[in-house]
Input
Amino acid sequence: MTIASILLYVDPGSGSYLVQVIIAAVLGALFYFKTAWWKIKSFFTRKKKDAHPKNDNLNA
Amino acid sequence: MPDTITHPASFRDPSGFVFQWNNTYYRQVNKIYAEDYNLLMGSGLYQHLLGKDHIISHTETEEIIAEPANWYKTLKPFQVPFITYPYEWCFDQLKDAALLTIKILKASLDHGMIIKDATPYNIQFVNNRPIFIDTLSFERYDANKPWVAYRQFCNMFLFPLYLEHYLKTDIQKTLIVYPDGIPVDITSKLLPLKSRTSIGVWLHVYLQNTVTRNAGAAKDEVKFNKRKLLNLVDHLETTIKNLKSRSSRSAWKNYYAETIISKKYLQAKEKIFRKLIDEQEVASALDLGANNGYFSGILAEKGIQVIAVDDDSRSICTLYESHNKNILPLVMDVANPSPSTGFSNAERPDFFERIKTDMIVALALIHHLVIGRNISLQVLAEWFNRISKKLIIEFVPREDEKVQQMLASRKDVFTNYIESEFESIFSRYFTIKHKQTVPDTKRTIYLMEKR
Output
């Protein structure tokens, strides 16, 4: 078994390396924005939650 | 050198090969793979996967050495009873096989390893669940490199699943002509416009198509790490979990519920069928034209291993989802069984060479083959004789409402399609052991034995 033939076998997806780098970068960016969005969202939803007990009290 | 037969599909991977000796399959691990094999066994990965029923078990043995020059170990793996291929699976079977591959990849990464290939041919169905069979797929993980089998995973799993999800049509059968999976350029052309709203399709299909077309062989020094790989793998996993096959009702899905065939008929037929199989000592059966697997279920109850075949993928998916351990459901046209494929037409044998059972069950099937497909009784009898030792077959006569429906739209050239002719032709190839008409119908069920 020559090294060349081994490489032929284990390297079926070498052309896809670059794609994976780009996809990982895009997914990383999306994750970053998602986290940022969650932070903003939770900032407001927390405020709303804080408002809830007051409403309950008013209703009571 | 002992008298061993190397498996005709086992020549690509220099790490080792599968061979047969004394009707048992073995796997030789070559010296070149020694380090990775020891890591698989020593890192706890093998035990972990075995504990979860994700990989077939094996024992190391020295009873046989097929090729001493490269020999490191001989493994005697669990013998998979029936070998099947992705073009015979339904959507959910391919989807489960894809998700199993991802699980194995993640577990490998946890143990400092990675899988170097990602193909459904490394997966088989045992007890109606997918299981990984290629013990030599694992190698040491290099965190600087992306996943070598990413493209293969896309072509073999993701793209067929995407196409079925978006086109709502059977596409898996095309894997017969694409043994390496559906290429990205074809997938990108086949996917409908609405798929472009999916970020997954955009990344894994359109982006990949553009990049691989333009990038050439450029692969040097890409920066990658484990976090990035896990992001990619998690994304593939979530994407696949959300894919669904066609939800539309199939023509056959409600066959027993809706057709002219009454509950009474079904009960009477079941009674005859149960009596017949109670008298048989069989370990396995092939149910041709199984539909939703009603009669496969009766066989399975008796502990018989059943291969249930039907051309309707929805029925087969429903049967697969029933999780009956004794039933292996497969999508295939009985009149056009899977051929031998691959290099030298020997890598993947044809269906009937692979699937040998003690008995064949063909209930309400023959009229579809004779009248629907123009296969004469003579040709059918010869064929059944080649594939079955025992045969339970139902003759649906010309007067039957179903047959009349089929004849309504075509010229009746089937003059010899009558019970006496059926019996006389089949008697040349089989001994008729039992014959019983289903009460209140003209349908007859036979038990035959090969002459």
